[in-house]
Every structure is written in structure tokens, then in C-alpha cells.
Specification:
heterotrimer, A alpha+beta, B alpha+beta, C alpha+beta, A: alpha+beta, globular, B: alpha+beta, Aldehyde Oxidoreductase, domain 4, seven-stranded mixed sheet, 20 helices, 32 strands, 28% helix
Amino acid sequence: MSTKKRVAAKVNGDAVEFLCEPRQSLLEVLREVLSMTGTKEGCNDGNCGACSVIVDGTLVNSCCMLGVEIDGCEVQTVEGLSKNGRLHPLQKTFLEETGMQCGFCTPGFLMSSKALLDAHPDPNEHQIRHWLSGNLCRCTGYDKIVRAVKKAARMQEAEK
Amino acid sequence: MNKPKKPPGFRVVGTNPIRPDGLDKVTGRAVYGDDFKIAGMLHGHVLRSPHAHARIKSIDTRKALRLPGVRAIITGADFPKPSVPMVGMGEGGHFDMNDAADNVIAKKKVFYDGHVVAAVAADNPHLAEEAAALIEVKYEVLPPVMDVRSAMAPGAPVLHETFNPGAFFMKTIKVLPNASRLELGAGDIAKGFAEADVIVEREFTTETVHQGYIESHICTAQWDERGQVTIWTTTQGAFAIRDQVAIICALPMSHVRVVPLEIGGGFGGKDTAYIEPLAAMLAKKADRPVKVVMSRAESLRATGPSPGTYIKAKMGAKRDGTLVAADLSLAFEAGGFPGGPIAAGTLTSITRYNIPNVRLEGFDVLVNKPKMKPYRAPGATQSHFAVEQLLDELAEKIGMDPVDFRLKNVMKTGDRLILGFPSPPIGGAELLEAVKKHPHYKAPLKENQGRGMAFGFWFGAGLTSSAELSVNSDGTVQMCTASCDLSGTRLTLAMQAAEALGIDVDDVSPTVGDTHSVGYALQTVGSRTTFATGIAVIETAQKVLQEMACRAALLWETDAANINVENGIFTDRNNPAHKFNFKELADKLEHSGGPVSAQSTVTPERVGFQLAALLVDVEVDTETGKVDILRCTAFQDAGKAVHPDFVAGQVQGGVAQGLGWALNEEYWYDAKGHLCNASLLDYRMPTALDVPMIDVVILETPNPGHPYGVRGVGEVPIVPPAAAVAIAIHNAIGVRMDHLPMKPGCVLQKIKDQRAAAAA
Amino acid sequence: MAIVWIPSPLQSLTNGEITVRADGGNVKELVEDLDRNYPGFKSAIVAEGVLVRPGISVVVDGRVVKKGLLHPVGVESEVFFIPAIGGG
């Protein structure tokens, strides 16, 4: 049995403080402690990417990071993508290009794609596939996801 | 992508609107299985057998129960005898409910690694896991049998002293201690082979594969004081889970309410109750709501894979390319209980070609693996892997183009199937012509690259569906069906409602109902939702229009027979001044008899067959045996593509699953029957780097069994890829593949054998 | 008389005949008529009363008929008994 630790972090721009057991993953903290269930668990061992979030600018599998590790960090999750009722370009293009079917892997893909576009605003197909290769989608065959990311990149460029 | 043009006559069908549930899915608001929480909820953990085959001698739960925070433990002894021994499922076959109950939790024996033996409910998931580890189970370990040929050999370990053969699809007859058999035939195969100028004969093996949905199985159960249980779960069919839980827990069906949550993929694997009866029993015993979550490893170890197979196939053709004989023997794993997809695999093996002399033999073979379950066109991928390769070889030996060879023999509308009845309208020849005409077919290739083509068939299912429509006073419409939405069917159904009602699709709000809120429907399986539930929606819309026409007649003080309805406009034949659009009339319903709603439950009788073809280019690394997929063009007949982008998405997804099956995916058991690769690292599904863009060509041969000509599209795209890749490898490096998956080691072995043969 | 296509597992009952003619106003009556000439046919198709055996679908003139044995047939009808098909 473990004693709980106090952790202070920023999640989607908001300051949060919570208690968590040292054995709890960041994924568990997001979902169970902070009730942010947009981030999904597909495998809990770092192989599916459904739990992808961005911590201090780095794309991580939140199931493979401990909750206590985010003390002092800034975390971005799918819940923070849309701002003031406006969808992020990736959210728009995943809808328009039907880059999802069951939608379960979608939050993870959106976060990986965001990390990609943050690093490479104009990615080619290989870069997109490389950055998304840690995210498994069993429904789409990736074709429409790749199209959605390309389109979002163009949209972001146009918005600048 | 080649998108069909929007035909005249359709306003909504054939367009690509954005799905109404999409916003919840891109914002993280959508509530999937594990996102559902209720106050006071306990967490379940399931204890599973570490042995593939064993007798349970005793289960001691005392230590686990002493752990603070443990609220309930259940074993097989907590379950009653199922209230119904056997259930029919319309066209879907029938199920032995004693087997189903034993699969949920073992009673006397465990039949596979991961078979449930007990379950714990505790204050948190970690505690539940710790408690489960304290349960002491004594086993008498028995030798397992892990593949079909061993299981059919004399002296093999026997799983069940007696069993009820062949549930899924078609009756089989017990012929061996671990196997039952079916046979179909036509003509005289000896005569057929005697007429053949060219005969090819090969043996094929394929490994067990999993559906691989990214969301595992998760459910939450809560009882009320009247003894009714509500279960929130991620499933392909709420009513199917309701029926299974009611029977396995011996409850009246009305006492079980199943609420389907969003589902993170199913592909056939989520039409069965696994953890729902466990959650229900734990919640009852603990007198608290209980959530049970299956881990990824549990899902791979213990939920519905698709069978590994052994197939012996022999086919003969005349020099002019006429197929004259086929003799196939297919042995499919059933898993720990009888009733795998052998009948479907057998029936679909040659259905798409006219062959006068045929013998098809299928074996449903018990092995110590999880009970095999449907996976996207169940059984067809395996049997096509064999048959399409033999066809390619026959074409090669005759010196005929492989597409021309198939065109010469392709089943056309009205041709008799092996079951005797004539094929409903089908566009096989048109599909093959489209393959031939496509620029991909003749595109240049480089060294060690090859192109393969395979042609696939699937029956599809009709089965029962329900729909309810309610007209709001502002002219918007609520639509409720019991068909769980795996891929966007809420939208494709709303589009059909909008088409039928003559209103905008944005004015239809579709929801998926629970078992207490809407009429009965079987699962979202068999590519049936857009097709069969679509028919229910259209019929319901027609009822709504009829009633609204009556209201218009009342308001205009005329006879209902004088009212004309077209594209949502109501007119009076006798008075051109009388005209309402849908919204105007909706506004007047309240004062002409009250709001209008209607409901339908239908079982379509004419299911359109599904056909698909795939062109695939591969490159083989002859040093390592690794195969890369370079280019894919998929061809499919949608009947009528309701939402062409969704149809293309179904095709692309099915093709990608088929490519994974072709090259990587397999269950890996050790000699003791332990699954060694129960993780997504080692059960290697395709990533974005493993597949190219997948071009889709949609053809439309209308299905007369649907008012708009719709065919199911979901399943058949998975059928051609394994065979097409095998043929492409042959065309690249000249070896014939006979095993799935065609992983680098297998390909390299073929290359070495080829070099050794050349040297000798 | 309607034409009944005999499923291959039952063709041993009909001495190898693939199609046979039978009289009746519905599928059940056809089956009963056939059972007089080919004993055992009824028990292979009918579970009890008017219920078809689990796993068998009745096809009349190209439709998988929901009413099964109770479905009416005409003198020109073609009747098939096929394995039930579901899917994934």
C-alpha cells in the first residue's frame, strides 16, 4: 500500500493540484483523478498510442508515465484542443476527411498529429506516417487520417 | 478516390455529410465503456486460468476475502443453470447456452489459457487485482491440443466427452472426438477432374488472428431493489448482450437493461457476452455497482479470435479456362467450444465462380484456444487464401490472364450457387472489368516487385432491426434505433430517414437506444446495419409520412387519398392552393391529433451479396524475406453508396486488416498452450508505416432487396488481401506461399528452398 | 408442383436427386409431402411443430423468408433450405 503524493501541474493551461499514489500512471491520473476521460486506454503498455498526450512539448504515452512525474509540468490533452468553442484545425479535418470510424483512437491521433504539426508545420506523407506510427487505428487503414493531417497543416498555414 | 456521381433522384443518399457524433469523438466527450462511472462503483478483476487444459479441483477464496476492501468474489458455482439451453439467432445460427455460460466462467474444466475461473470486486482496481492473486485454485493439468491436425489425430487429448456440434451458421455432425464435419457438393468431382486439362493441388495453413479493436471489453453493472440489473457496456448489440446475460444468469429478459455506450471497434468480436454476466453477478453479491475492465492481454487471451486453419485444395480447369472441378477440405479451429465459422468459410470458398463439379468438406475442430468468434467476413479470408491462389496457378499454367480467367468463370445474376438457389443481382463481371481497365493493373514494376489480384465474396446478413421516428413541432425529427454505431451508421441511417422524409439530414437527430427504449435488433454484424436497419428506418419514415398525409387531409378537409407527398412537400390533388412543406405541417400536428411518431421492426428477406477485388503491389527483400506493400487499389460493389467516404473508409480499414493478417498477425502459443504474444507489441497489427494509401473504386450494382439499392459493405474488403499479397509475392520472386502470416521467416524459407531446388 | 432443392447432406434421402417436385400450399406442406416419398426428410428440416431446425434458413423464390415453414408457396415456387449466415 502506498501513500499518496501531492502533485501540482498545468493541464490544458489550467493549474491543477491532486493527490496520487506513486504507482498510478499519468493516464490513470487524468482519467480517474482529474475525470478527464478524453484520453483513452487501449493497451496500458505503450503500444497503441490511444493515451497520447503532450507533456512539456513532448509527445508521450500517458500510460507509461507516472502521475507523480508531471509535478511542475504542462500537459496537453484532447480536451484542450478546441478553444472558446472553436475546433482545432485537426479536429475539423478529422471530421471532414472522415479520419475516424469508431473514434476510440482519435484523441491519441489528434495529440500525435498536433505534436507533429508543432514540430513540422508542413509534413510530407512519410513524416506523417512516421509520427503516427505509435498510434494504432484498426478501423481506417490510416488513409483518411493521413489526408486529415495534411489538410490540417494546409489549414493552419492559411490561418497564419 | 473514385467517387460515384450523385445520381439524379437522390437528394441525401450519395453525399458525404459530417457525422453528428463526430464532435464528441474529436473533443474527447464521447462516452466509451471505461468513461462511464457511477457513484459507489466497485472495480472487478477477473482471475484466469494459467493452463490451456485442466480440471478445476478446488477454488479457495478465503485469503482473498480477508483483504480489506474486497467486497465480493464469484466462481462458476455462483451461476445458475442457463434458463434456455439453445438460442436461435435468425439467420445467424444457433448457440448452445450451456457452452456460452461455461465460456463466461469455467465450471469443471478450463479449455484455454485465459479461461475465467473467478472474479473479484473491490474498492479499486489495484486492490481487486491483488485479491485475485490471493485466490488459490488447484488444477489437474491436462495435455492441451493446439492445432487442428493434432486435434483430429488418433489419441489426441479430448476436450469434451460429449458436445453439441456446430452452432455458428450450419449444422455439423460429430465425426471425431474433437471434430464435427459438414459436406456440400454438386456434380461429380471424379468426372470433373477427368475432364480437366490442368489440375493444381496444394495444402495451406493459417494461424489464429484477433479482431484487434483498440478499446478492450468494459462494462458496469448495477442492480435495483426490484431485482433488475442495468448494464452499461461497449458492444455490437445491446439486445444480444441482454439475451445472453438473462439466460446465463437465469433472469427474465425484462429484468436486464443493457445500455450500449460508444464502442471502440468490434469487427465481430463484441457481439458476445464475456464480462457482462460477471459484472452482474459481482454487483449482486457485493450489493454495489461494479465495473469490469478487460486488459489488452485478457482480451487477446480470452476473447473471440478468428480460427487458424488447415486447408487441402484441388482444382481443375480446361485449357480454354473453364473451371470444371473443385475439391476442398477445410479444417477450422473452433476453440474450446464447438461452433467456429467453418460453414461460412466453406460456403464462401468458391461462391463467386461457376464450377459444375464440387466437393466441399469442412471440419469444426476443438482445440485449447479461446472460442472462435466472427471476425469480418468470418472464415472467408482463410478459404480465399487457398482458392484464389489455386486459381492464379491454374491461370498461369493455362497461360491466361488471371482476371480473364476469373471473368470466364464468374458467377452472374441468376447463376446457381452451390446451395442451388440462383444468385440475386450481382456485379462480379463488372467488378473484374473495372480491375482490368484500371491503370494500376498494367503499371510498370521493378525487380523483386510483384502484383497480385484476388477476388472476394461474402454473403452479408439481413436479420432483425428496429427504428423509431418522432416528429418535433419544428419539423426536426428524432430517430432511435437499437443498432450500435461502430463506424458512422447513425449518420448513414439518418441520411436514409432524411431521404425518405424529404428533409435535410441535419434535421434528423439519430441516437442508439438501449434495450428498454426501442424495439428489438440483432447486432451490428454481417454488414447489416446500413442495409437492414436502413430498411427499418425507411419503412418507419413511410409510416410517418402516411400519418402526416392524413393530418394534411384533416386540415384541408379532404380525403387522405387526395394528398400527394413528394420530397417532403404535401399537396392536395384537388386544390393547388393547398401546400405544406414538412416543417409547416409538423407545426400543425399538435392541433390535428397530436404529435406523430412511428416504429418498425423488420427482417429483410433479400440480402445483396458482397463482392470485392484487390490489386496489390509488393516488394520482397530477398535477403530478409520482408515484404513491403507498395500500392493498393481496392474495388468494391456497394449496391448504392449511402455515404461514399464512409464506404471507402470501410474498404480501406478492411484492406489494412487483411494486410496485417497477410504479413504479420498471428497467435503464438508454446507447447503447453500459453499465449506468448498477448500484447500489441508482439501481436503485430499494421501501423501507419506498414500500409500505403489505399485507393478505392466503388461500383454500384443495386440490390433490389433495399429501396435505395444498398448492399452491406463492411466485411468483404478483408477477404482478398491475404490471397492477393500471396499472389503478388509469387509474381515478385516466383515462390508459392502456403502459410499465413507470410512473415519474413516464412518468405525467406521459400527463397532458400527455391535456391536449393535450383542448385539441385 | 413447387420445386424443392435438396441440400447436399440430404441428397442421400432422395437417391441423389438434387431437385424434386412437391405439393403443398406452404413450405411445411411441401416438407410433409416430401417426407412421404423420402422418409426422414421432415425430421432433418423440422425441429418441432412449425419451427425449422436451428441453423437452417428457408429460401422461397430468392427470399430468406422470416415465416419459414409457414411461408406460402405457389405451383411455380422454388424452395431451398440453406445454412443460416450471420457475420462479423
